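hey
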């Protein structure tokens, strides 16, 4: 019994020491998290934190905004890694947390902003509109020079994201991303297909339903002119219901896109 008490006391002391040391040391700079795997890269110079995309020859630094071929981030010191003995391989992190090289060409980066690829090879930027993103910024970053790279911690979760903008531009970007659906992941493609089908079905049903109601109302007024006001009121109520159905379909389609 005494030995058990000694072990418990020692465990409490060690745990307390680790907690104190962690508060003072570990949290000074948050460490990357996630499992990195060895992947084949094309020839060229790479730096820790580069955003990389797939290509027929292997992985390379992304050089397009909102690139749908984003694969992850090159990382040199991951917490966990699956190594390969093949030449030309480097470690890639596709999910978790990693320090990413970014610029402010898309605007100053604030914690919680979406990060995507940019025209600067390997560098990320703030996503100012909807599109394919690398993840979410976990730190702020500002720079007087738009093309001056820096490093911030990013929560890696590659996916299409809807960024709130004006209604017109948001709709155009959504349609643009919908056209790219076959090149996205199966889940993302399914979201776009469902959203398009629901939006189209709501408009189609709304127009068909309203057309029948309007035609029926005109015929009813012709047969019974004395009930004109009641028939017109009925047509207006049906019009409101039709608009509600169409609006509900659009809202449901939008919710499917952002989940």
């Amino acid at each position: 019994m005494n030995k058990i008490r000694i072990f418990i006391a020692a465990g409490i002391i060690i745990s307390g020491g680790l907690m104190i040391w962690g508060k003072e040391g570990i949290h000074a700079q948050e460490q990357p998290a996630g499992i990195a795997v060895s992947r084949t890269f094309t020839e060229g110079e790479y730096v820790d934190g580069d955003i990389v995309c797939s290509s027929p020859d292997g992985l390379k630094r992304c050089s397009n905004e909102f690139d749908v071929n984003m694969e992850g981030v090159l990382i040199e010191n991951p917490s966990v890694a699956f190594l390969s003995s093949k030449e030309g391989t480097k470690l890639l992190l596709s999910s978790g947390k990693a320090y990413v090289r970014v610029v402010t060409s898309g605007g100053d980066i604030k914690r919680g902003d979406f990060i995507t690829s940019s025209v600067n090879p390997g560098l990320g930027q703030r996503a100012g509109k909807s599109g394919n993103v690398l993840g979410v910024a976990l730190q702020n970053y500002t720079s007087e020079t738009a093309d001056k790279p820096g490093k911030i911690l990013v929560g890696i979760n590659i996916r299409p994201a809807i960024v709130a903008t004006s209604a017109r531009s948001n709709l155009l970007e959504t349609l643009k991303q919908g056209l790219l659906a076959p090149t996205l992941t199966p889940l993302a493609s399914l979201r776009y297909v469902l959203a398009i089908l629901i939006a189209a079905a709501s408009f189609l049903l709304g127009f068909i339903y309203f057309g029948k109601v309007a035609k029926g109302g005109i015929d009813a007024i012709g047969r019974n002119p004395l009930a004109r006001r009641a028939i017109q009121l009925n047509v207006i109520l049906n019009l409101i219901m039709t608009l509600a159905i169409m609006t509900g379909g659009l809202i449901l389609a939008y919710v499917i896109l952002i989940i």
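The radius of gyration is 28 Å. The helical segments are 2-24, 167-179, 186-223, 228-258.
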